Amino acid sequence: MISEKIASVFNEPDCEKNRGKTAGERKKGCGTKGLTPGAAAGGCAFDGAKIALQPVTDVVHLVHGPIACEGNSWDTRNVGTSGPLIYRWGFTTDLSEMDVIHGGEKKLYRAIKEAVAKYAPPAIFVYQTCVPALIGDDIDQVCKVASERLGLPVVPVNAPGFVGSKNLGNKLGAEALLAHVIGTIEPSDAGPTDINIIGEYNVAGEFALVKPLFDELGIRIRACITGNSRYRDLAGAHTARVNMMVCSQAMINLGRGMRERWGIPYFEGSFYGIGDTSQTLRTIATLLVERGATADLIARTEALIAREEAKAWAAMAAYRPRLAGKRVLLYTGGVKSWSVVHALQEMGMEVVGTSVRKSTEDDKARARAALDQNTGKVGELFGAIANPEMYRMFRDGEADIMLSGGRSQFVALKARTAWMDINQERHHGYAGYDGMLELVRQMDIEINNPVWAQVRAPAPWDPPAASPGVTPLIPAGRRAAP
Ligand code: SF4
């Protein structure tokens, strides 16, 4: 029953926020705050489950519902693949009014059969949406029957949009993996240096920047859940020795579930920032040695860290004179709210503030510590910044660049301030040592772009001197064009 599943997700014991709640508050779940009038609602639970599982690249992702559900969620993240492309196809049962009257279960079965005949995938993921859930289509039963008759795993992902937020959908996607996928295949080659990475979505293919480090150390990524994933790797993920959680909010239930069921410890780490990448590698090596890997792994990891850090800092030194003194507003969430701060500070940049809208308490503490190191001041953590206030900050020259997701880009650009995408739609990978160098390179391109001199100069038709009563957008002396 979906209600029982949601209740268990709301009761997540490893969620720090949840532990601080009373039993009554826990029952109400997360994200129950009403919407601000005029604000976008954000993704639904179906969207969250789809985002979480779409990077499984070799399966058919079949959306059971009206075509708009698939249309709205199709390819919204720029997640990369090193092989199969089937995950980029949009499959839907395209329910119509007649299906609402007669039910959509037969149509769903026919769609599964057609997908198997045409594409021969290793598995099919079937997503429930609002309309079939409301008319009572039992996708669990259809998937079970289809799986038996067609001879392949057909996985129900029961997360209709109306049950809650995108974040809840992430967790329901993880529940589907726990219930139907992980542990269903026994790999014959399990070893003492196998790990899983949970919550790494391979945005812009950036995991390719990190994987060679693991390959060199002889650490095998059994499954990346779910970035550039293959079905069989996920099915055998229970044999790994350590789980690394990249974003604790998205799939913490999966880390806890795998620890309870298969005894795999998990820790939270990050591949954003040089220091954090090194710390993550160290932690993985230590945990693997504790769980049976040979002790020399720790020394080999330290040698690799020393070499890679030296290489990265040497390469980044060229950018220091061009970036030192520039001010950055980080408007993102989760681990990125603190993990890139150190590297920017090392470039001599000033991080004027970082948002902690979607961050855990632990993220907030780390962000505060990182900023304190920068300025000695406390309190530069932002919640949501209203657009007029954000515009004022840029207009008054309080930041030279904003790093954020696409939705807030126009506020910065309207105020003639550089902006860079750091969220899921971006087209550059920023993970690991090479990724940090790429981040710095892109920031240099944005901040020192000659376009700013053009757009901040007076227009040819402007009077030579400021007319009385005309307020310049950027007060004189606050910020010179590069
Ligand atoms: S809220 Fe329901 S109908 Fe709307 S996109 Fe999500 S699943 Fe589809």
From TrEMBL:
Keywords: Nitrogen fixation, Oxidoreductase. GO terms for biological process: protein-containing complex assembly. Pathway: Cofactor biosynthesis; Fe-Mo cofactor biosynthesis. InterPro entries: Nase/OxRdtase_comp1, Nase_comp1_CS, NifE, NifE-like. One of its GO terms (molecular function) is nitrogenase activity. The keyword Magnesium does not apply. Residues 44-444 form the Nitrogenase/oxidoreductase component domain. Residues 460-482 are annotated as: Disordered. Pfam families: Oxidored_nitro. The keyword Hydrolase does not apply. This protein may play a role in the biosynthesis of the prosthetic group of nitrogenase (FeMo cofactor). Belongs to the NifD/NifK/NifE/NifN family. This is Nitrogenase iron-molybdenum cofactor biosynthesis protein NifE. It comes from Rhodospirillum rubrum (strain ATCC 11170 / ATH 1.1.1 / DSM 467 / LMG 4362 / NCIMB 8255 / S1).
